[in-house]
Write a structure and sequence with these properties.
globular, 5-stranded mixed beta sheet, 28% strand, alpha/beta, 3 helices, Endoribonuclease L-PSP/chorismate mutase-like domain-containing protein, 60s Ribosomal Protein L30, Chain: A, Endoribo_LPSP/chorism_mut-like, RutC-like_sf
């Protein structure tokens, strides 16, 4: 018998946090048909501390990967709430769009975003494999190191 998503998260030592409330005029997730669109989630931990700074100007790739992993955890937390607490309703992670707070000459955004992508594949297996964009950006809200949004097919 295969593991449930909750069992896989527990095995990885991940407890999904209660999602943060929107800080502006938007909703955290919108479901239309069988697609769930999750608003961008920044690199904030369960204690409310945001991983901040620019990649290539004080932050290295490993730190960026850890920040992107936090974004993945927050995306999963938002998905869980939007799906009534049942992540088993995830059919496929369709697309991730990652924004990496980058110094002008930083070009390793895909390596940073692997922190998010790798966790989705670890947790969801093949249905966690997705299309993706990794974009360098001059600034993010709260000086967050990363922000990631998701499109997820759901049952």
């Amino acid at each position: 018998m295969s593991q449930t998503i909750e069992q896989k998260l527990a095995e990885l030592g991940i407890t999904l946090p209660s999602p943060t409330a929107p800080l502006a005029n938007y909703v955290p997730a919108v479901r239309t048909g069988n697609l769930l669109f999750i608003s961008g989630q920044v690199s904030i931990d369960s204690a409310g501390k945001i991983a901040t700074g620019k990649l290539g100007a004080g932050l290295d790739i490993d730190t960026g990967r850890a920040a992107a992993r936090l974004c993945a955890i927050n995306l999963m937390a938002q998905a869980k709430v939007a799906l009534g607490g049942d992540l088993e309703k995830v059919v496929r992670v369709v697309k991730l769009v990652g924004f990496v707070n980058s110094a002008p000459d930083f070009v390793d955004q895909p390596k940073v975003m692997n922190g998010c992508s790798d966790l989705f594949v670890e947790v969801f297996g093949d249905k966690g494999r997705h299309a993706r964009s990794a974009v360098g950006i001059a600034a993010l809200p709260f000086d967050a190191a990363c922000e990631v949004e998701a499109i997820i097919e759901v049952a």
